[in-house]
């Protein structure tokens, strides 16, 4: 009998760098080792009570589909939320999605044909390459270096990468995995290049308010790029509810939103209960995100107080989100991560981090880098960093 085949598209996908050590974690836990998980962007902080209350107060006898563009009251809550930043949007400019993940997918489908190109800055959130591969989009990376603070220095760096097939530029601000909060000048470079070359800007602002210096800087505040700009937004991180699976795509480009709406109709709707349950927190977003940001800043400082004293470790002090990239004095960070899970523990504890290689589109980068996510409380994080420090020392004694 012929073997049934799966698609080339699926075969091209990498395993998630964040999820690929689950089996080793399970085995370590079975041996009674506590694994501090600093690998995944799903924080320990409780989902706000407004959202939990919103879910439990749903009393309808039927969970109907929502309108494909989103429930009116939910969209109105986003409009009000954006108004708080001096950004004025109409309801037809916001479309509800199943998280930013679906927003990326819909956007790539709406702006590109197979074989078209989208410029990205690497390292970048690892699901972009996966979604691009599914859509037949070729990602063209511009490498930003840890040693240079991940700075985009000039227009030329982007212009060099533009071809006849380029459709857009992705900018994640603040960024996962680097924790970089993009500066106004850098964003102005992107805006200028996009406007001049007729390209879309796909601004992923999943972590918008989580910045440790200055004010949140949405690209929706920039002038003269209304037709170019697509903003992707999410409930997941700033409102601590990734499982609610909700985001929005925002754009003032009418042709684009009409296209996105057609795609949205084909998948019927984003979650109904989630849209209703997030209305209240969107209305009270500022005090909530302020407190959250202060907590992540505390965690960033704990991690960096330890890293700063570790010999051979190169870091960049993040200015936003809750991640950071670290260069280790090792040849292969995956081997170090496996060592931590299989061969090392300190007081029956170990640490799981993410290897960076799969956050790069170009091959051969990031093999000596890891990403840490500050997703544990201060007490646990302090302990986890002590274990991490001792683990690296032990690994270096074995594999100097
Ligand atoms: C930059 C970035 N974009 C999008 C997502 C996915 O967000 P969502 O849960 O809204 O699909 C993540 C999740 O980690 C992310 O870091």
UniProtKB/TrEMBL annotation:
Positions of the Aminotransferase class I/classII large domain: 34-387
InterPro entries reported in the protein's UniProt record: Aminotransferase_I/II_large (IPR004839), AspAT/PAT-like (IPR050596), NHTrfase_class1_PyrdxlP-BS (IPR004838), PyrdxlP-dep_Trfase (IPR015424), PyrdxlP-dep_Trfase_major (IPR015421), PyrdxlP-dep_Trfase_small (IPR015422)
Reported cofactor(s): pyridoxal 5'-phosphate
GO biological process per UniProt: amino acid metabolic process
Pfam annotation, one family: Aminotran_1_2
Superkingdom: Bacteria
E.C. no: 2.6.1.-
SUPFAM superfamilies: PLP-dependent transferases
A GO MF term: pyridoxal phosphate binding
EC class name: transferase
Keyword Transferase: yes
Family recorded in the similarity comment: Belongs to the class-I pyridoxal-phosphate-dependent aminotransferase family.
Name this protein carries in UniProt: Aminotransferase
Species for this entry: Candidatus Kuenenbacteria bacterium CG08_land_8_20_14_0_20_37_23
